[in-house]
Amino acid sequence: MTRRPRILVIGAGFAGVECVRRLERKLGPDEADVALVTPFSYQLYLPLLPQVASGVLTPQSIAVSLRRSKKYRTRIIPGGAIGVDLAAKVCVIRTITDEIVNEPYDYLVLAPGSVTRTFDIPGLAEHAFGMKTLAEAAYIRDHVISQLDLADASDDPEERAARLQFVVVGGGYAGTETAACLQRLTHAAVRRYPRLDPSLIRWHLIDIAPKLMPELGDRLGKQALKILRDRGIDVSLGVSVAKVTEDEVTFTDGRVIPTHTLIWTAGVVASPLIGTLDAETVRGRLAVTPEMTVPGHDGVFALGDAAAVPDLAKGEKDAICPPTAQHAMRQGPKVADNIIHALRGEPLEPYVHKDLGLVVDLGGKDAVSRPLGIELRGILAQAVARGYHWSALRTGVAKARVMVNWLLNAIAGDDFVRTGFQARKPAQLKDFEYTDSYLTPDQVRTEVRTAEAEGKVRGKVTGG
Ligand SMILES: Cc1cc2nc3c(=O)[nH]c(=O)nc-3n(C[C@H](O)[C@H](O)[C@H](O)COP(=O)(O)OP(=O)(O)OC[C@H]3O[C@@H](n4cnc5c(N)ncnc54)[C@H](O)[C@@H]3O)c2cc1C
Fold it and tell me: Domain FAD/NAD(P)-binding spans what residues (predicted)?
């Protein structure tokens, strides 16, 4: 009996969703079965996450439904891949109800993205928040407002001062936008707290690098720095964190900041799923060819933040694409095309894309952008930043939600509601980003072997 080839896509982010959509459009239903492993039923539009943290956008606005496409026919497996046995061609999945499923494939697309990169700094894992998931953004919003509420209720000047200091680590776009958007929120909120002295609110943005967002170029980078400093954000470059406790952050320059808020955005590292594969990596990302295939493993593709895709457009030896949505959303369709080429016995195509630049929304009317090398700031940069993100949202409903939220915020101003939904839940990076859920390569092999012996690999006919 001949059966349809099984294409398994892991991760419903920019890369995974764009890949699936192209497969749905270009492949006939009888040509292949497509399945998508994802813990959530949405694609998260990450670049707008700081605006959820600051309450400009509601969480639902940037959680783009996976089930709205007209051509939608992919089987969605609700869960996370916790290991892949490349030799057996089986992916081990933990479903959202904590069951283990062994899913065989003929073609595998690895697009699980990245997680927050941390270092061995005392107290960091216990006390830092990341800015990578919708839950983290919603949690941080509640946390920041709760600091204002607690400071307002306290008569202890030391506690007040500590509650009103906030530290963001990471001067890339994620950290800079987060600090800028949240500072704007607290600045607006404090007017509703007549007992609080606004001058006690201090935001610190620090980075070990000597420059903020070097991708912006010298002039625009300096302008971004000036905008932040003019707004009262204390930016320290060449500085990192030495130690963290529940109520203090010690910087490497010796300063000790009394605070209950440390937001850690100092870079990303490929999803821990990559470590379960026992395959070659480049700077922690899975090594792939320019066609995004994993060398030595037939039918396996990897892309997005999780993969070290050669950046052919740069023309430099060993250059790899930076971990950006811009690349991930273009690599997705290219991988889909290459799978279709492979199915039809045609040659694969390399991925080539020239970077289009960067847009950075600093909240309100402040922004800096560098589309196609043109340097913009102020309202024009803001229009380009918002226009770019708005047009990149995949569905009309998501576009409408985001536009309505922006208009509402422009007319009615910020809102300071603390929902309290997650107040008593564990709030460590590993809880939000599930970094401790993965198997070791040995555990993957044992799991798959046992499942095969017990006939529990889904749809796999053994012994034939
Ligand atoms: C705050 C912030 C702002 C940013 N701003 C910009 C910007 O302005 N411009 C830009 O180009 N880029 C920006 N980026 C970077 C950009 O968002 C990423 O490069 C992009 O999301 C990478 O796409 P991806 O598909 O590889 O991963 P993601 O979009 O992260 O998608 C990965 C998906 O896989 C899922 N997943 C993870 N592990 C598993 C698993 N084991 N099993 C199943 N599913 C799994 C995740 O839930 C997620 O849905 C920003 C990032 C952040 C955090």
Answer: 6-332
Measured from the CB, is residue 273 less than 6 Å from ligand 1? yes
Tell me the CA–centroid distance for residue 266 and ligand 1, in Å. Answer: 15
Give CA–CA dist 176/425, Å, rounded: 27
Over the stretch 395-409, which tens digit does the pLDDT of each residue have? 999 999 999 999 999
Parallel, antiparallel, or unpaired for β 90-95 and 357-361? unpaired
Residue 155's CB: how many other CB atoms inside 10 A?
A: 7
Q: In 238-392, which ranges are E strands?
A: 241-245, 248-251, 256-258, 262-264, 268-270, 281-282, 285-287, 300-302, 307-308, 357-361, 367-371, 376-377
Q: Given this model, what pLDDT does residue 70 score?
A: 73
Q: Where in the chain is the domain with CATH 3.50.50.100?
A: 124-266+357-431
Confidence of residue 426 (pLDDT cuts 50, 70, 90): low
CATH architecture of 6-115+269-355+434-453: 3-Layer(bba) Sandwich (3.50)
How far is 116 from 428, CA to CA, in rounded Å? 12
First to last CA, the chain: 11
Task: State yes or no: pLDDT of 1 exceeds 70.
Answer: no
26 Cα–ligand 1 center, Å: 25
Ligand 1 pocket, 304 CB below 6 A?
yes
pLDDT the model gives residue 378: 92
Query: Is the CB–ligand 1 distance for residue 113 below 6 Å?
Result: yes
- Residues of each domain in the chain carrying CATH 3.50.50.60: 6-115+269-355+434-453
Q: Does the structure show a pLDDT above 80 at 168? A: yes
Rounded-to-integer distance, Cα 213 and Cα 207, Å:
10
Q: The domain 124-266+357-431: what is its CATH number?
A: 3.50.50.100
**146 has a pLDDT exceeding 90:** yes
For residues 62-71, average pLDDT = 87
Tell me the CA distances in angstroms from 306 to 27, 100, 269, 271, 331, one per residue in order.
25, 23, 8, 6, 12
